[in-house]
Write a structure and sequence with these properties.
By secondary structure, this protein is of the alpha+beta class. It is built from eight helices and 15 strands. The strands form four sheets. A five-stranded antiparallel beta sheet has the order 13-12-11-14-15. A four-stranded antiparallel beta sheet has the order 7-10-8-9, with helices on one face. The longest helix has 16 residues. The protein is globular and about 65 Å long. The relative contact order is 0.15.
C-alpha cells in the first residue's frame, strides 16, 4: 500500500488543501496520516510525529511526505533543520525549497531567471528609489506571502514613492519588479512535472490574488503558454518542487507558490471537477 504523511493544519490555511488531498489519496487506496507541524519529535535518534502515546508516525516509513504551510514561526527553523536530515526524495516539496525558494526573488537566481521580469530586491530605500527613477513602471511588493496586500505600481513621478518603499522595507526586504502586461495572467497547478490545468485571473487594479479582490474565469491556454508551463514544471522538479501553483503572464513567470496555494477550490467552482483526484496517480510508483 502506498503511504502519504501530510503535515499541516487547516486553521492556518487560506485553502482546503489538507482535507482535499487527504480525501483524494484515501479514495485511491493510499494510507494517509495527518499530523500537525509542532508534533515533530526526535526520540533517541528516531524522527517521528507523536499525536499521543498511541499514535506515532515514523517519517522513514512513508513513501511521500507533504508539508503544507509553515506552522509556527517560532519553531520553524528547528523543524526544518530536523526534517532536513530525512531523505529529501521522500518530500513532495523538499525542505531545501522551503528554506531557499519561498522568497519571490530567489527563484529568479535559478534556471527560471529566463522567465522573470527585471527584478531588484533590497532593504535600502535609496537604492530602490534609484531604480524607479531610471524610468519605466515597477511593481513593489513584499518578497513573500503578500496575498494581494501591499502591492504598488510605482513610477519616478509618484509623489509617495519614498513613503511607499519605506513602508515596505520597514521590517523586511522589498522586491521591485518590472511592470509587465498581465491581461492574460493565469494560475496553473503542476505536479510531478505535469500540468493539471489553469484559470485566468480577472483582477481589480494590481490585485491578482483570488482571495483578495480578483476573480477567476475559465481560460483556453495557447500552445506557447502550455509549452512554457511544461518547461517550468520540469525545472521546478529539478529544484525539489514537485507540486505547486504558478502564476504566468506569457512570456513571464510571476510567482511560484508551493507552500499551500489556493487553486483546487477555484477550479472546482469553475469546472465542477475536483482536480485533486488526479494527484495519486502522478505520485504512485513515480521515479525520483
Amino acid at each position: 500500500m502506498s503511504t502519504l504523511l501530510l503535515i499541516g493544519a487547516e486553521r492556518e490555511s487560506h485553502a482546503d488543501n489538507l482535507e482535499r488531498i487527504e480525501s483524494a489519496f484515501l479514495s485511491s487506496g493510499w494510507k494517509v496520516v495527518i499530523v500537525s507541524h509542532d508534533e515533530l519529535t526526535l526520540d533517541h535518534g528516531r524522527l517521528c510525529y507523536i499525536r499521543n502515546s498511541d499514535e506515532i508516525a515514523v517519517l522513514d516509513t512513508f513513501a511521500w511526505i507533504w508539508v503544507l504551510g509553515f506552522g509556527s514561526r517560532s519553531t520553524f527553523l528547528d523543524r526544518m533543520q530536523l526534517l532536513h536530515t530525512v531523505d529529501q526524495c521522500r518530500f513532495v516539496n523538499s525542505i531545501d525549497a522551503y528554506l531557499l525558494y519561498h522568497n519571490k526573488a530567489t527563484l529568479a537566481m535559478t534556471t527560471l531567471s529566463k522567465y522573470t521580469p527585471d527584478t531588484v530586491v533590497s532593504t535600502n530605500v535609496d537604492e530602490l528609489v534609484h531604480h524607479v527613477h531610471r524610468g519605466g513602471r515597477w511593481i513593489a511588493k513584499p518578497t513573500a506571502g503578500s496575498f494581494g496586500r501591499d502591492v504598488f505600481e510605482l513610477q519616478s513621478n509618484d509623489p509617495n514613492l519614498t513613503q511607499i518603499l519605506e513602508h515596505l522595507t520597514r521590517n523586511d526586504y522589498a522586491i521591485l519588479q518590472q511592470r509587465v502586461s498581465t491581461e492574460r495572467e493565469q494560475r496553473w497547478y503542476i505536479a510531478m512535472g505535469s500540468e493539471l490545468g489553469a484559470y485566468q485571473k480577472v483582477k481589480t487594479g494590481l490585485r491578482g490574488n483570488v482571495g483578495a479582490t480578483s476573480s477567476a474565469v475559465n481560460c483556453d491556454p495557447t500552445d506557447q503558454e502550455r509549452d512554457m508551463v511544461r518547461s517550468i514544471a520540469s525545472e521546478l522538479v529539478d529544484l525539489g518542487i514537485r507540486a505547486c501553483a504558478i502564476d504566468i503572464a506569457y512570456p513571464y513567470l510571476l510567482d511560484v507558490n508551493f507552500v499551500n496555494p489556493g487553486w483546487f477550490q477555484t477550479m472546482e467552482n469553475l469546472t465542477g471537477k475536483n482536480f485533486a483526484d488526479e494527484l495519486p496517480s502522478l505520485f504512485d510508483n513515480t521515479s525520483r
